[in-house]
Write a structure and sequence with these properties.
Helix content: 55-70%
Structural class: mainly alpha
Number of domains: 1
Distance between the termini: 38 Å
Order of helices and strands: HHHH
Number of strands: 0
Radius of gyration: 15 Å
């Protein structure tokens, strides 16, 4: 059990290991692929929208759902509802 706590403590102290940031990076890649057919959507646009949406939640006490909320906001800003679940 102590081993698990050591890993958690180490991860929290390591700024390079931010699972939320990793999920947001993956989200950016997914959005670029989903909107690849639109000339007005590119990596810069998607990155800006995701970063802007993420800032809305930067003081959230519970960060688990931030990537989901950011994705929803990005879809709204891009003018298309979320794709249907497959």
């Amino acid at each position: 059990m102590a081993h698990d706590l050591d890993e958690i403590r180490t991860d929290a102290e390591n700024p390079d290991h931010d699972p939320i940031a990793q999920q947001l990076d993956q989200l950016k890649q997914r959005l670029v692929q989903q909107y690849a057919g639109r000339a007005d959507v590119n990596e810069g646009v998607v990155s800006g929208l995701v970063d802007q949406a993420q800032r809305q939640f930067e003081h959230a006490k519970i960060r688990t759902y931030v990537p989901i909320l950011v994705e929803r906001e990005a879809h709204v800003q891009l003018g298309r509802p979320e794709p249907a679940a497959v």
